[in-house]
Amino acid sequence: MEREGIVDRTVHPVIPPKVEYSLSEYGRTLIPVAEVMCAWGENHNKRKYEESAS
Length: 54
What we know:
43% of the residues lie in helices and 22% in strands. By secondary structure, it is of the alpha+beta class. Strands 1-2 form a two-stranded antiparallel ribbon. A hairpin with a 5-residue loop joins strand 1 and strand 2.
């Protein structure tokens, strides 16, 4: 994902080694997609719960 520009990687020159990842500006364009997928998952779980309660 770093190579595709979706995440930024920051290396901190400390011991022990520390690397942080964050969404790039381009990666943040995926947030609406993730929100829709999350809503779908919540609806799916609700549906499955209602079916099992019947």
